[in-house]
Amino acid sequence: MSETLLEVEGLAKHYPVRAGLIRAKQIGVVRAVDGVSFKMKRGETLALVGESGCGKSTTARLVLQLIEPSAGSVRFEGAEVTKLSGAELKAFRRRAQIVFQDPYASLNPRLSVGETIMEPMEVHGIGDPASRRARAEELLRLVGLAPYHAQRFAHEFSGGQRQRIGIARALAVEPDVVICDEPVSALDVSIQAQVVNLLRDLQKRLGLSYLFIAHDLAVVKHVADRIAVMYLGRIVEIAEKRELFANPRHPYTRALLAAIPHPDPARRGKVKPLGGDLPSPLNPPPGCRFHTRCPYAQQVCKEKDPVLTNGVACHLADQLPPPDLDFSGGLTEKASQRLALYAAAAEG
Ligand code: SF4
Question: Is the pLDDT score of 271 beyond 80?
């Protein structure tokens, strides 16, 4: 698991904001993604985590070339993909697939499940109708459904089953990397663990690499090898999962961890969850973008933008007190159930 599969450097997506009758005047720029860099190894799961609006899903779409970057590069097996078009872009897209958050919205209601799974094979010219049908049935079995489900339509399935269909469709063209964009967020809590478990199982069997987008560190804890934490369009910390959970260095990472209720009541209670809202990417705070919410902010934080160095972007990373891992917050019944399910899925 040492070969670099994907390398992203200085990736940015800026949207101009225009005003006036014919929108001729640019009055600002929304910096949805603003200089994101990371490497992904073959066979690993890298999680991108952060609050809604931090730019993680935009990053995923930039990596897949579904939207055009304003700056930066994306290299797949060493080859630049941001300049690809036509047949070359199509060939890249065969190797990098996506599973969306909302399985219902991402499935065409007019196509049967079999047609849904066969469609990407047709687009990429893989096989003939008979072999595509056989492959669709094989994929249905692989994701825990039955071959006869190929005749049915998306509305006949539950949310978890629809996500399994979405996964089967993504795997139809035998990709190397799958971008999982909040794949379990829309699912019932009891189904989330099953889908997480399925993704882990498929990764082992097929040697897949995952870029796993989530806002929930509890999900990521059981799927990721490494975690990149995003805040306002930037990565503020990136580390091996164990390291990040044991020794979170950025105050924002600590706040996200504090938001996970700890299953052991004796270990709950000291770190305050993050307050305030995510500032607008149209007008990010000067200096460190997190300074408006950071309990450790000093004058330097308001003036100087910290650079990601040794995996963390914080002026005071080496001076902060040790993290208090006695996570705060009460443990709701739902959260308790979810953590137990993830633990069971991880063991299974
Ligand atoms: Fe907080 Fe300052 Fe570090 Fe930003 S640079 S995270 S404001 S301590």
Answer: no
Residue 336: its pLDDT value, please? 47
CA 178-179-185 angle, 5° bins: 125
Nearest CA residue ID for atom 7, ligand 1: 291
289 Cα nearest atom in ligand 1: 4
- Which residues neighbour 333 within 8 Å (Cβ) at sequence distance 6 or greater? none
pLDDT of 26 strictly over 70: yes
> Domain with 157 in it: what CATH number?
3.40.50.300
Determine the residue of 254, 288, 298, 318 to mutate for testing ligand 1's pocket, defined as the one with the most ligand atoms within 8 A of the Cβ atom.
288
The rounded distance, in Å, linking the Cα atoms of 302 and 292 is 9
The share of the chain scoring above pLDDT 90, in percent, equals 66
Task: Tell me how many domains the chain contains.
Answer: 1
CA of 314 to the centre of ligand 1 (A): 5
Range of the domain at 41: 1-348
For 238-273, b/e burial (b = at least 16 CB within 10 A) is bbebeebbeebbbbbbbbbbbbbbbeeeeebeebee
Which class for 100: exposed (0-12), middle (13-18), buried (19 or more C-beta within 10 A)? buried
For residues 201 and 19, give the distance between their C-alpha atoms in angstroms, rounded to a whole number: 50
Sign of the CA dihedral running 193, 198, 201, 203:
negative
pTM over 0.85: yes
Q: For residue 270, what pLDDT band results from cuts at 50, 70 and 90?
A: low
Question: 279: pLDDT confidence band, cut at 50, 70 and 90?
Answer: confident
Residue range 316-339, pLDDT digits in tens? 999 988 876 544 333 344 444 554
Distance 220 CA to ligand 1 centre (A): 24
Cα of 316 vs centre of ligand 1, distance in Å, is 6
